[in-house]
Design brief:
Helix 2 runs parallel beside helix 11 and helix 2 packs across helix 13. By secondary structure, this protein is mainly α. It has 17 helices and two strands. It has a single domain, classed as Rhodopsin 7-helix transmembrane proteins (Rhopdopsin 7-helix transmembrane proteins, Up-down Bundle). Strands 1-2 form a two-stranded antiparallel sheet.
Length: 423
């Protein structure tokens, strides 16, 4: 995104270096200190802790690796860097102005280009990864055989999709490093002796095309539009196919196991879908203000700059909302998915036990924090044969219904149901 977490810094880039060496502090400095320097710092630290724990859990848990939560794992990794860059760029800038620390100002200018570039790349990568996860879930929610084949292709090449997401982010956002230059004024001292400037790369006309049309459309407007469309489509498809899932649940009840197991299978798919829908909805709500500002800047930036108070407040809020969305990832995952909740708690206790052993975590570890019912939520393992039908467990009426329902197409639907589960 063009403005997420770093929108206010772009305003600094556009300011010309003052010739009279007069330093004027930013407006609403007290507001910035409270909202960005305190609240923003706390939320960013929470986001770093939450997403670091999620990334560690997804990458080390053998149970969760079977579900192929690749996109969610890398999104959590991106969220860690996004939150770190928010602190390094936005919070430190406010501290520099509020405490009038020249040493902090020099340090901020030294790492700004790298932090600015990393923030841009990880923001775009997280958006692309979320797009890939949403499109994949949409293909699962449809009943078309062609979409199933496309889903199988994407599901077997997730590593390549992740690589393409980061590569695209690097192409469209990596040039930010060369578009920024730290300038100094030898005739001035203090805060007026250093500043930032935008360096043209392709010429004035081409820079406008690249920055405000190609890059902004691909990394700002396109992800927002795609996620909004597919998120709504997923919800509609889930409602439309609920009756079909009921028929499949009946067949699975007859051929696989007890009614409780089938119910848990269906609830797991709904939980995963609900979890992704909540994440995407949070992304859309967190970026709607950024989209409005970006659209306003593209059409008439002068009218926006003529209202510095409004521009400053909107920029601070639009930079804060994505960090808040990042901090909510862990609560969303743990509330909707029981298996993720158990694995996160287990990994957290393992880390606490290694660093500072305590009785509580040792007791949790002795219990292994493992619910054997979670494994029974799975269908039969892929390497094992399909369980045979036990007539004595279900009765004659269920057997007749199974024979009437279980055709070649239904067997294929069971296979689709099993494949769509392992995500």
């Amino acid at each position: 995104m063009d403005r997420n977490n770093i929108s206010l810094v772009e305003n600094v880039f556009e300011d010309a270096v003052s010739d009279d060496c007069e330093y004027s502090p930013p407006i609403f400095l007290e507001w910035k200190m409270v909202f960005v320097g305190i609240i923003g710092l706390i939320v960013a630290l929470i986001s770093i802790i939450h997403n670091s724990l999620l990334f560690y859990t997804f990458s080390t848990s053998t149970v969760l690796r079977k579900r192929n939560l690749t996109y969610l794992m890398w999104i959590s990794g991106c969220d860690v860097f996004i939150s770190l860059c928010y602190i390094a760029i936005m919070c430190v800038q406010v501290y520099t102005d509020y405490f009038e620390s020249f040493n902090l100002l020099v340090l901020w200018h030294e790492y700004l280009r790298a932090a600015f570039t990393v923030s841009h790349i990880t923001l775009s990568a997280a958006s692309f990864l979320l797009m890939a996860a949403t499109v994949e879930r949409y293909l699962q929610s449809t009943a078309d055989n062609r979409t199933l084949k496309l889903f199988q292709i994407l599901a077997t090449h997730r590593a390549y999709v992740v690589f393409c997401c980061f590569l695209g982010s690097l192409i469209f956002r990596g040039t930010v490093f060369f578009e920024i230059e730290v300038v100094t004024q030898p005739n001035c001292t203090g805060f007026s002796s250093m500043g930032l400037a935008v360096v043209p790369m392709f010429g004035e006309s081409m820079d406008v095309v690249w920055r405000f049309f190609v890059r902004k459309i691909v990394t700002v407007f396109l992800p927002f539009a795609v996620l909004a469309y597919f998120n709504a489509s997923i919800v509609m498809n889930v409602r439309r196919t609920d009756r079909d899932q009921t028929v499949k649940a009946l067949v699975l009840f007859i051929t696989v196991g007890t009614r409780g197991e089938v119910t848990r299978l269906r609830s797991r798919l709904r939980a995963v879908t609900r979890m992704l829908v909540m994440v995407v909805t949070g992304y859309l709500l967190a970026n709607i203000l950024d989209i409005i500002i970006a659209f306003w800047e593209t059409i008439n930036i002068q009218s926006l700059q003529e209202q510095p108070s409004l521009y400053t407040v909107l920029s601070d809020i639009s930079s804060f909302l994505p960090i808040a969305a990042c901090a909510l990832r862990l609560p969303i995952y743990t509330i909707n998915d029981r298996q993720i909740r158990v694995e996160v708690r287990r990994k957290f206790c393992d880390l606490i036990t290694r660093c500072c052993p305590c009785v509580l975590c040792v007791n949790h570890q002795r219990k292994k924090l493992y619910d054997h019912q979670l494994e029974s939520e799975r269908l039969w393992p892929k390497n094992e044969p399909t369980p045979k039908l036990e007539i004595r467990n279900y009765g004659l009426q269920s057997l007749i219904m199974a024979r009437a329902s279980l055709s070649t197409k239904e067997i294929y639907d069971i296979q689709r149901f099993r494949e769509s589960y392992d995500v």
